[in-house]
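retry 2 of 3: previous attempt timed out while embedding magnesium ion. Reduced batch size to 1 and resubmitted. Inputs unchanged:
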Amino acid sequence: MSSIPEIFGCNVFNETVMKNKLPKNIYKNLRRTMEKGEPLDTETADVVANAIKDWALEHGATHYTHWFQPMTGSTAEKHDSFISPGPNGTALMEFSGKALIKGEPDASSFPSGGLRQTSSARGYTAWDPTSYCFVKEGSLYIPTVFVSYTGETLDKKTPLLRSMDALSKTAVRFLKLFGNENVTRVTSTVGAEQEYFLIDKNKFDRREDLVLTGRTLFGAKPPKGQDLDDQYFANLKPRIAAYMAELDEELWKLGIYSKTKHNEVAPAQHEMAPIFTTSNLGTDQNELAMEIMEKVALRHGLVCLLHEKPFEGVNGSGKHNNWSMSTNDGQNLLDPGDTPMENLQFLTILCALIKGVDEYADLMRLSAASAGNDHRLGADEAPPAIISMFLGEELDAVLKAIEEDGVYKTKAKAFEIGVNALPSFPKDSTDRNRTSPFAFTGNRFEFRMVGSSDNIACPNTLLNTIVSEELDQFTEILEPHKNSEHFEDEVKKLLKDVLKKHRRIIFNGDGYSPEWVKEAERRGLPNYPSTVDCMPHYTDEKNLRILRKFGIYNREELTARTEIHLEKYSKTRRIEARTMVEMARKQLLPASLEYLDKLCTAIACKKSVGIVSKAEEQIAAKLNDLCDSFYDSIERLEKQVAAACEIKEVQKQAEFYHDYVLAEMDIMRSIADEIELNMPLSYWPIPTYSEIIYNV
Ligand code: ADP
Ligand code: MG
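retry 2 succeeded.
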């Protein structure tokens, strides 16, 4: 391997390449577009397109594609070659500014939640110059947004970009209150820690449930799960190490700062964390990273599972969404700071977050909702479905002092939290609470609810919007006092008010404990265990109000999105249920009956020569009962799915899948798992949990 600096970003049309390949004035125009969102003029676009094309050809590209993130949950691409007819039967390689900027994929098959029927049949993709183009597998990838002809968003990136703009505007105005007159842009940042499972491809191929749904729908618990915690940070087995090494190299080539890799808590579970970047680029890079993870695995005879819950009984996978905001003059707005004024600014932003997370806990919760993630959240696993915030002891003490006009004591000294005397407090909270869904970790918040397979655009869009709203409210209150000598008093008064009202969202205890569920209820915090419980709140008036206010979604877009999520939930459950029925009928039940048959033959045989067969008879009787129940459950599940398909109303249908179909799936699984435990390995037609998760 060449050195890392040599290969890093070698397939990306990044800042350095741009500077090298573009004439000075063109580069300047492009930068303006990137920073201020000003449209590119045709001439600039043509020159840029040509330079990108030449660079892409040098890097082995023959095609280009507009790359976008529709509501399917994966990325989409359609490739066109650069080829165009030249004189005398020759071929030219051409690429215009127009083709760079705009594409028109046939969009009729992407989910739109009814938006396209009402507006226009087609959508178009538009280049997003704030993310970098890159070359992969012979194509130039152009990051784009995807909207309908009448401007409604059909993808996950458009709302994110809108929310980043909203946040920047409100934060810039807010920061002026604290003397930050020179800040012109505030950008939300994200570092997404990605968890995943690696299993052997041969085993994967023999499990229809994994192939079709990404998770195991059957499978008895192995004798050893994660009981010993001996997998977490354990040394890397050679096959895994080889995979991770190649993954790093591929990610580096694509300009992704893959930084940390380690084994996770569950057997066969691992993590990759990149260095954080802007939310926009971070979202694109996470989508890309997931794709590369899956592809590299195949080269090692492995399959990378990104599903939130591939295996029952061991931890599922999430994607810790580390979030902060940084200014164009280099401040991290969630860094406590060294001077009292910086601390006052930090504490005010912190209180804006506390207020926001409390008022919009439902939005936060539903930003991470999906059929797959339902198996983690609210299912005795990290983190719970109830939104709360963890701040750490130190910070909590500071806030208490503000709230109660009290004294904040550090080990060394006691401070009066008064005007001009906000203490500088320790920046890194040592106690890292792992059970909190939204935890302060020293200079950022870690939102731990996001599912491992999910696009991070939605949680970041909503987080940005919520913070925009609160900063905007704070600015309205504080701006009139900006240059007054009472400014700091006013800030303190505001913070005190906010803390009094919203302290309930702060919880530093064990988020997994049953006591917390009760305590949260007492505090009046919402608890939405499943997707069908939280999704309807997307369109609650208070949520619609802020989403409209900042131009993120209009009512139609929001309704459409809610529908898409619920439809996806129903479809996922339908596919899972049908896969179960198919595996049960074609594999599991026949295998069980075959073994039963064998036992009965043996019993009859022995009887004819006067031998009593205790073991066979006991197993046969038990298996016979189980097979009967199994059969009944298959019949019931089929009927439930048929009944679900009849329901027209989207929310009702999703609820039915949750209440009846999923419930029957659970029953069927427990019967099948019991059968598995009574069957010889040689008769069981699909790889067992032990074979799958301990085999790499
Ligand atoms: P841990 O597993 O201990 O929580 P990791 O090192 O695995 O921590 O991941 C932390 C993530 O947080 C990294 O992706 C890191 O780049 C990111 N991060 C650090 N600072 C910021 C910030 N200011 N904004 C967003 N993300 C950040
Ligand atoms: Mg980590």
